[in-house]
Amino acid sequence: MAEKKGVGHAYNVDFLNVVFAASSLFLFLSVIWMVWDDFDREWKNTQRRFAQLEYQVTQAQREQAVRSVDRNKIAQLEAQRKQAEQNIAANRKKVDELQDQLKDADNKVFRATLDYNYMKATYDQDRYDFETTREADPKSSATAKKQKIAEDEAKRLAAMGE
Predict the structure, then answer these.
(1) pTM score of the predicted model
(2) Is 149 within the bounds of a domain?
(3) Could you write out the three-class secondary structure of the chain?
(4) 112 in a domain, yes or no?
């Protein structure tokens, strides 16, 4: 009787390598053939010719449209465009002048606001000084003097606020 091989030797590795290589080569060639066959279908060539014809028709229509353009109308539109650009330039000068005037007015308002705030702060300080002096000595001449200063500043502040 023939000698029985162990479990690890139940197959021939060299033979399996040859089978694997042959099947891999067959699969590779069949994939290449499938891709080429899919690419080279008859209707795809028809489709390519139709796309080319469609492109040529569109080009012919474009050329006809270019030839049919009214040159006088284009010249008229160009003149209108130049006139509009001149109007824009003239209006730009007016806009710049108005923006400069607005900037000057904003500066004046800002300055007046600052002057008012400074006057208000001075008034508040003098009013506080007067009130503390009046609390300390209501009959002194300094109290009357400070009251007069506070009242004058209140009048100027009211005049600025109008």
Answers:
(1) 0.41
(2) yes
(3) CCCCCCHHHCCCHHHHHHHHHHHHHHHHHHHHHHHHHHHCCHHHHHHHHHHHHHHHHHHHHHHHHHHCCCHHHHHHHHHHHHHHHHHHHHHHHHHHHHHHHHHHHHHHHHHHHHHHHHHHHHHHHHHHHHHHHHHHCCCCHHHHHHHHHHHHHHHHHHHHHC
(4) yes
